[in-house]
Each structure stands twice: as C-alpha cells, then as structure tokens.
Amino acid sequence: MKDRSYTVREEYLESVKDKLQDVLLLCQIYRIPFFATIAAEDDGTHTTYQNYVHSAAANHIPVTDDEIRKHILVANGFTPVPKREAQTFAPFEHSLYGDTEE
Description:
Elements: H1 10-29, E1 34-42, E2 47-54, H2 67-75
Antiparallel strand pairs: 1-2
C-alpha cells in the first residue's frame, strides 16, 4: 500500500514560513487584512496547520464582508453550514386550539 502521509523538508517549510512572516509584516504596515494557512506536518493520522492572520476586525480595518473571519472560524474547527432561507410559519387556525375567532 502506498504511503499517503504528507512530508516536507524542514528547510522548505522554514523558507515558506519566513516569506509568510514577511507578507504578514507588510500587511500589518499597510493595514491589509490577510489570512494564510500552511500544512506544517502530518504524522499519518493528523495534519498540523499553521495560520498567519492580520484580521480586519481585531485591527479596526473596515471591510464590508469579512470573509477572513469566516476562514479563521473554519481553521479553528468550526464546521460551516450553508445559508438557508428564513422560514416563516403561518399561525394555526384558532379552531385547532378549540378557540373561536372573534
């Protein structure tokens, strides 16, 4: 059976981490919301991820639709649920309650 676990050489991973730190610093300087995730390691049963974040909300950067906030929730283990239409319910007829409508 083929080994399907993820491995990356440490020097490659460190190089990517250094570049992401540079991007993160630039985003902080220029007030640009930023989010990135890398798969840092995998032991065959669990993958460890490393996140880099400069969030709009935490840094008082006004954005209309903060998608980064949603990505952070997923990265922290929340399961997304698709939007659904609001449900409205018509009231039951009074006769079902034994009341008469006046």
